[in-house]
Design a protein that fits this description.
This protein is mainly alpha-helical. Helices cover about 50% and strands about 0% of the residues. It is globular and about 65 Å long.
Length: about 350
């Protein structure tokens, strides 16, 4: 995400200055006069192809309890940007803290600054840069982020996102090049072992799963394969998960001591096989995102740089924060009062 936020010609994302200025101006901004994608012809045309599907998905997502307030805020801001009024009405939270490690804060700021651009006096390059980012976030990235924590969907979603970013050159060449270059060097979930996670993806068709199993039996890979998969971006449009599956993909089960007898049956019969439930359950418990780690890193960097260099004190701070998050999972008044009783 940092790579995307540093795309050339997007001045507001190159430093915190404009965001800090926006935060200080928040109290003077009229929250009722925001501008969504429909108020700008270029933006309305760019999001038209994705809008209906994204809104439907986002409206379902906001009905589910989110682990953090900024998660929910990002979903709601995306809906508002796409021109839909939330059932509970429109509410904009005050801009929060900014840190280099927290990409989500930058995305949230990007949406807000652009939607209140008429009151913030953006320059033409700033307006265009933020507009391009808002389009990319709302049409491509937020969908991928929403399902990023589901391990079984990681291989399919990553390949889908890579294809979408490659095709995004039709809308914005700079963003497309930046995202594809970054993602092409981080194909962890398409590696010979982790691609096996896709066998437990309920949204992956059985035909593809059967072909993956066949590849596990017949296709030889490199003698010394790289830890991460490599792919010719020019050919990515035609690639499927089967292309990343080889004999060694079955070592996923061996290394984790998981049964694999169900692989001898067609995919549409797996759920009836006793050996399928254990690996299915195991994969469902895996987490693949590092946003909590990013917040911890931000805290440690700030604390160690200003207050202490003592490792013991750093560990103590992290333990206190972890305990606090358990007691106060959100910032609602009811939660805070309940923990003081």
């Amino acid at each position: 995400m940092r790579k995307i936020l540093r795309v050339p010609n997007f001045p507001p994302t190159s430093s915190h200055g404009d965001f800090i200025c926006f935060k200080s101006s928040w109290q003077d901004i009229d929250k009722t006069t925001y501008e969504d994608s429909s108020t700008d012809d270029y933006t309305a045309k760019a999001v038209a192809e994705f809008k209906d599907e994204m809104v439907q998905m986002l409206e379902m997502a906001v009905k589910v309890k989110q682990p953090r307030d900024d998660y929910r805020e990002l979903l709601e801001l995306t809906i508002i940007f796409l021109g839909v009024v939330l059932p509970q009405g429109i509410h904009f939270a005050a801009p929060g803290a900014m840190h280099q490690a927290l990409w989500m804060a930058k995305v949230i700021y990007t949406f807000k600054v652009w939607m209140f651009r008429a009151q913030f006096n953006l320059t033409s390059p700033e307006h265009k840069g933020l507009r391009e980012l808002c389009i990319f976030f709302s049409c491509i990235y937020v969908e991928a982020w929403m399902t990023a924590s589901i391990a079984s969907k990681a291989p399919r979603n990553y390949l889908k996102l890579l294809k979408q970013c490659q095709m995004y050159q039709k809308i914005n060449t700079n963003i497309s090049r930046a995202t594809v270059k970054k993602m092409a060097g981080q194909l962890w979930y398409l590696s010979e072992q982790l691609v096996t996670l896709a066998l437990f993806d309920d949204d992956l068709d059985n035909n593809t799963k059967d072909k993956m199993v066949l590849a596990m039996k017949e296709r030889e890979g490199e003698k010394k394969p790289p830890k991460r998969a490599t792919v010719d971006i020019k050919l990515i449009k035609e690639k499927t998960l089967v292309d990343f599956t080889i004999r060694k993909s079955k070592t996923f089960f061996n290394n984790l001591h998981l049964p694999q007898d169900f692989l001898e049956y067609p995919a549409d019969q797996w759920k009836h096989q006793p050996s399928f439930s254990a690996p299915k359950s195991f994969v469902s418990t895996l987490a693949v995102t590092n946003d909590h780690a990013e917040r911890a890193i931000a805290l440690v960097e700030h604390f160690s740089g200003h207050l202490t260099k003592d490792e013991q004190q750093l560990q103590f701070v992290l333990s206190v924060v972890a305990e606090h998050r358990k007691k106060c999972p959100d910032a609602r008044k009811q939660t805070l009062l309940g923990n003081n009783e």
